[in-house]
Fold:
Amino acid sequence: MFDCDVLVIGGGIVGMSTAYALTRAAPGTAVTVLEKEPGPARHQTGRNSGVIHSGVYYRPGSLKARYAVRGAAEMVKFCAEYGLPHQVTGKLIVATDRAELPRLHSLAQRARSNGIPVRELGPAQIHAHEPHVRGLAALHVGTTGICDYGAVTAQLAAASGAEIRYGARVAAVDRRPWGVAVRTAAGDVLRARVLVNCAGLHCDEVARLAGDEPGVRIVPFRGEYYELARPELVRGLVYPVPDPAFPFLGVHLTRGVDGGVHIGPNAVPALAREGYGWSVVRPGDLAGTLAWPGAWRIARRHWRYGAGELRRSLSKRAFTDAVRRLLPEAAPADLRPAPAGVRAQAVLRDGTLVDDFLIREAPRTVHVLNAPSPAATASLPIGRRVARLALARLTDGS
Structure:
């Protein structure tokens, strides 16, 4: 009667980590993963800066804080076990203006509350770590690292033993007392005892297909990147002091496992859920965003911040000016366009940006409804949590 025990929708790092956790926790469990793209990690997972986050930014006690701290150590161990490219580099969070110093001090306190050792540096110590970076003060976070999340996702898929079906876009979900039936756009029907929704940019749509009202909408924000033509100017990872009112970390400098240095991202509204450029407009996606009251409330509440991000999107010189706050030697000619990413940000009806991972349960279903950064870092603990919930439903039939 069943094609599998657990059917996972979404082949990003959270979906593959869930499949990996399911087969580790309950050997013999039949798991199938449906991914609409021709390979894994084609969206959020494969379009970020590859940072293994330490957990310094997140509210103490939150899932983000707990899972990032735990997940960072586990990610390094996983990469080492499978011979995947990675490095524990440490990073600097740099204050370039006196007004940022209290926020930098608060970050140091938050880091220590989360069990993360940090060192507070002055200008001379900043120079010793990063000779071309300028700042008044900085935090050095030694547990931050880098890896290739696309390679991690592919390894999770292989090690899980799950059946992975690529090119399988979900078109319909039929939840019955006996389980769940899913029809793909190609007309294939799969029956499972339990459904897990890890659809990322489309997770709220999948929830509604299953008959559940998620209470949030995914509002897509595009993050635009450049590559530094002179990578020798940056040794490791350099971040600005973030604005605590937003989940975005600001334009930062990241030396990747390939030796190149990525700069970015900014954060501008995307005109499609997979809107990786201003030319990508999908009327259905845009209409869905504009119909959600929370999107308008964000715009009214944060229009000044948004105007600055929009300016940096449309003007390379404005983007360079943001970079020059950290790296004064940077010039527009040093910035070469790099692939953009889109953040799947869950937004409540009142305009509140959901600031923690959001996992909800429904009959025979588990929905992952908010898993932006640092979800890649935290993917192994997230996968175990989702797997526990799915296995509980598998056991008791709820």
User: Anything to note?
Assistant: Residues 201 and 344 are 5 Å apart (CA to CA). The radius of gyration is 21 Å.
